[in-house]
Amino acid sequence: MGALPVYRWRLAPDGLATRRQLRAMDLRPGGQDVAAELQRPRRRRGPLVAYLYRVDRAKPVRPMTPARWAALAKANAARRICPACRRDAGYVIPPSLGTCVSCVYPEEQRAA
Predict the structure, then answer these.
(1) Given the DSSP bridges, would you call strands 27-28 and 48-54 parallel, antiparallel or unpaired?
(2) pTM of the entire predicted model
(3) Which residue of 6, 22, 36, 73 has the fewest CB atoms within a 10 Å radius of its CB?
């Protein structure tokens, strides 16, 4: 297996794109192998690496079906329900807290 071509930041040739760039064009890699690597140097750590895919081999993004929309809505609704009080918080509960703000700081809610 040969090594991947490595390009410096902003110097990749046309016809190659990252996953995010493909998604902006409504494309996906579609099972193709990584074509090249893009590296952005940093001072004190290793370089940031992004993988590049060929645009001509990319496939269109699969459309969202009604079942997939429903599953996404259900998953987002589950992120709003507090595990402690089982109420809809009205916002996505931060993972750092783990519960809604009124459960984490009950004394502040009584004062208000």
Answers:
(1) unpaired
(2) 0.68
(3) 73
Burial class (CB in 10 A: 0-12, 13-18, 19+), 41: exposed
CA distance 46 to 61: 32
How high is the pLDDT of residue 22? 96
The torsion of the CA quartet 98, 100, 101, 103, rounded to 10 degrees, works out to -90
How big is the chain, counted in residues? 112
Per-residue pLDDT reduced to its tens digit, 57-96: 999 999 999 999 999 999 999 999 999 999 999 999 999 9
| Measured distance CA(34)–CA(78) in Å, rounded | 35
| Angle, vertex CA 60, rays to CA 58 and CA 66, nearest 5 | 150
